[in-house]
Amino acid sequence: MTTTPPVRLGLIGAGRIGTYHATTIARRLPEAELVLVADPADGAAARLAEPLGAEATRDSQALIEDPRVEAVAITCASTAHADLVVAAAAAGKAVFVEKPMAMTLADADRAIAACRAAGVPLQVGFNRRFAADFAAARAVVAAGGIGRPQLLRSLTRDPGLADPGGVPPWTIFTQTLIHDFDTLNWFNAGAGAVEVNAMADALVAPDFKHSGLLDTAVVTIRYDNGAIATAEASFSAAYGYDVRGEVFGSAGMVTAGSPAQVTMAHWSREGVWRPTVRADTVLFPDAYAAELASFCAAVRAGSAPEVGGADARAALAVALACIESVQTGGTVAVRDTDRVAGGVA
Amino acid sequence: MTTTPPVRLGLIGAGRIGTYHATTIARRLPEAELVLVADPADGAAARLAEPLGAEATRDSQALIEDPRVEAVAITCASTAHADLVVAAAAAGKAVFVEKPMAMTLADADRAIAACRAAGVPLQVGFNRRFAADFAAARAVVAAGGIGRPQLLRSLTRDPGLADPGGVPPWTIFTQTLIHDFDTLNWFNAGAGAVEVNAMADALVAPDFKHSGLLDTAVVTIRYDNGAIATAEASFSAAYGYDVRGEVFGSAGMVTAGSPAQVTMAHWSREGVWRPTVRADTVLFPDAYAAELASFCAAVRAGSAPEVGGADARAALAVALACIESVQTGGTVAVRDTDRVAGGVA
Amino acid sequence: MTTTPPVRLGLIGAGRIGTYHATTIARRLPEAELVLVADPADGAAARLAEPLGAEATRDSQALIEDPRVEAVAITCASTAHADLVVAAAAAGKAVFVEKPMAMTLADADRAIAACRAAGVPLQVGFNRRFAADFAAARAVVAAGGIGRPQLLRSLTRDPGLADPGGVPPWTIFTQTLIHDFDTLNWFNAGAGAVEVNAMADALVAPDFKHSGLLDTAVVTIRYDNGAIATAEASFSAAYGYDVRGEVFGSAGMVTAGSPAQVTMAHWSREGVWRPTVRADTVLFPDAYAAELASFCAAVRAGSAPEVGGADARAALAVALACIESVQTGGTVAVRDTDRVAGGVA
Amino acid sequence: MTTTPPVRLGLIGAGRIGTYHATTIARRLPEAELVLVADPADGAAARLAEPLGAEATRDSQALIEDPRVEAVAITCASTAHADLVVAAAAAGKAVFVEKPMAMTLADADRAIAACRAAGVPLQVGFNRRFAADFAAARAVVAAGGIGRPQLLRSLTRDPGLADPGGVPPWTIFTQTLIHDFDTLNWFNAGAGAVEVNAMADALVAPDFKHSGLLDTAVVTIRYDNGAIATAEASFSAAYGYDVRGEVFGSAGMVTAGSPAQVTMAHWSREGVWRPTVRADTVLFPDAYAAELASFCAAVRAGSAPEVGGADARAALAVALACIESVQTGGTVAVRDTDRVAGGVA
After folding, report:
1. Least CA distance to A160: which residue of chain C?
2. CB distance D216–B203 less than 8 Å?
3. pLDDT, tens digit, 9 for 90 and up, residues B86-129
4. Closest CA to A320 of A172, A104, A110
């Protein structure tokens, strides 16, 4: 019996999400091997790489070109994502990039085109697709269990807002709700978002609204199959993480996700109590492992990743339309999500 | 269209349960009419009857013989049940009797035989059979949804023990668990209880154990189809009423009942909280109405009530075996539940 | 002890909802007495009134003026509601009117002003306020349990659309979602709706869209306390009735309602299954009784009803803004809900 | 910063559970290193060890004496457990042993005494103590949240019985319910089991009853603090794994565990459906990792493991009393669980 050798990964960006991915790669995934970590900050790459048995560099281009690196995981600041995807593709490396893949549709098109030209697989970090609850819901929808989708809902509520002053404008759309936009697109597969209406405000930290903070948002999306979706986000859920999805259709409904943490219940004079998903927990730890395992499998099989550049572009297009909707106060058309410079990835 | 006239009911016993039944009959059931209430206590019958538009008497035999009374609801002290059933049957009146129908198997046989001889319907107040949750569970079992029953569970936990000194010995078996014994017999329909092991104690009010109080009990029952059942009771659930049932079989399981009261949930920093069924609530109010409606329908149709004398006897036989099990510390055979003096009701 | 005499009610409109209310009044409410039913259709009033021991008339004005009638329940077609409220007020009768109280803000103002001038209590049939789940949720919100409301949701999905051709235009807003608008206003008490965006379509019965049918709708409402609410409706939920509410705030969340019917669960090789709320069920039967009991209590106490004319106007204002939003495709300001001709009821 | 070096483990027994533990050690636990695997079967140790980067041997005593091995994980057949614990202790190695630690109380005492004499830590594989649901429930009990325990329940239902002919007699007590006995002892910490009544049968595979198969059992345990517990097992749950616990006390109740797998629900015309824990799943994967991590931490800290020899002995004593109860048909005293030859471990 021959065993598939692990995919040798280089990881760019040793921040919070990079640390989580690196640890998952090194500790949980026999199908992957962490060989190199790059981060320009003083000692950051080494601090992450060494305990995990990997090497470190400050130079992301060196990492990309290192012959030991088969595939690159891009987990640094979002603004650098698109350029790094293009660079990795140019070096012929498979690419896993955190969401959002790009900050503009032009950059998204550029990244997709580069990977397409190089013939390298490109996967985007929409990990909710790999969460058991959401995947089971999607499977029911895909099997026709709810008929034609008519009403959809996806929401993300994070447990806290540590530094309201440090949140870049539009983060709620480009970083948070982009998960929900992808989930909705995925649940309503085959349909495209047509128009968007967004209402948003700084209700958690109103003192920071003047600096562009929006911490609460509700988005309505109309799809070209008639379905209407709602996406909703808050940066501060007192009871902990809350990520839920719902698809209602002509033959039924699926629901997924719950802020309840375990099955334990405490029944007392006051009623019944259950713990919820705490702020100090990583949400969807198994989904993080599963998305990377799926990426490695696609790399080895030479097959298309389960969630690719076109998905990233489609979610981004909704996020950008939301920003325009907030700016204009009106309903905004979502730009054509099918046209990608140089073709479709 | 001719309308079925309401069944004219006389009710014996104006205590707590009698008051509840009388109010249900007068207020909620178009198919019943409360015509007479009997209670020997000074003014008790009148206090209950008058606001409900019924008449009152101190004399239960007068009520039984009153020509306006078609059917008798016996809701007085359990020790008087069997004699009143016999008397009502002798007067040719249909009988609804609260549980337990009798305190001895001989009395149960006598009551059953009297109703059989008189050709009057006899229904026993096992209201759990008319609770929507439990009826739905039973329907699944009856339809073969769980295959052959193998493990069963029924439990009753009441929300408080107001007067531990006033609880007659063996109440936990003859008054409380008798509901569970009937539920288990009903869930495991067609099978008979073979042997019983009971462990019981005074854990809620240990100071009253010397006076015969048992406030906590666990019973194991082996049935002649091999199934093994557990029944469990406590007189003091801090979180309120808790009545649940479970049937596990070769092809699956049904569960029914929950101490949670409403679907409302409060999610906060402390977790998620839901209210439970409070002590000041009547449990199964709809089941009380449904069992009386079913009784009236059987009276009008001349058909057998849904839960009759043989059911009451079968549950009593288990309760009496439990008492013997506690007394001897061993496993006790349940006396033949099929043999009824004069035949089977 | 003196007993409060029942409130003598006359009911106008013997259709489906009128029949339900009349039966509730006659059968379940000791605090009410059904004395007269009016309906212009041939024999309709008599067919409803007689089995309930009430009298019948074809003439609603005669009912209103009948000296035996203390209070009028208006349960006929919505277009007649406002005029009948005015007429009943002119006769000095207390008024219970089904939703919507009026079809225009001017009519709503007129009805409120008439009751105010006559000094008669006016209650509107928003029965969801009396459903145990929703009332418990509201109580948590009112007690500060979720802090300041930020995101709200209310949805109504009915189990079927029997006659798509017979649904008047805008029904989804004026008849269905008006419940949700009131629920949201009530949950977010003290705040007023500022602007509305509505997306709606005929997804259940697309063939009837040309005749004005809208059977699916999503509404976003911005309130003057910053909170953003979503209301959602469908006329055809395959799994049965689905009415849910959710309020998320600075300190937590409440959720209420579930399409699951009973606690019974069936666990088998296929997974776990529970029944849902069927189409042949009346939703919230206890809430119908509770709202009428509350109305009778207010009549007897001379106090303000729990849900009055201003509430009806506020919900109507949102519904009308939704219609304009669908017509214009944009976000629409909700007209001032505080200004009522002649004052505030 | 100095890092704690991983605990170097040798594992004896390359069967199903050994394979699972070995993989967990090698793949998921940075605090452990798998250095050696022993199994007498032809090639078995090598097949497991090699892909995990460990060495293999057929000789368990060689493994125990190997100087690279700091701690021994005993995962072979139960009948060999006690002797291997004694041998590992004699070699001064820390011991992790799967349940049951021994098959007789004498062997249990011998194993405990050997570890005590050698001063080595001894942990037993009661992994349910490390399952999040159960640990949360226990924490509530330990914090006094339910007052004094009065009624307890623990059940284990496995999803299938592949080879009824290959099940050794009494397996249901010594291998399956021993988990529940430990859970109950742990929930009711500080109390000792006094007497036991067991009813058991071959209901899943009645044709194998003659060979000693018992596949269905219900056990009642009375504790010296008055509490009464029920333990229940079946070898064939159609709906998948079902492991639940419940502790009811003077101030409330905790419940833990559910056969429902994910939060996903599918609502359709037939009702609401959720998937359950499938037969092809490893139950409690995180608990397997957590118990080994806890063992490694105890080894490094030189502290007592969270679940030790005395716990193993106490659960075994209940299992052995159950066997006697089945044999005699009566209630059986549990032998003193405190007296351990040579002291208490």
Report:
1. C250
2. no
3. 999 999 999 999 999 999 999 999 999 999 999 999 999 999 99
4. A104
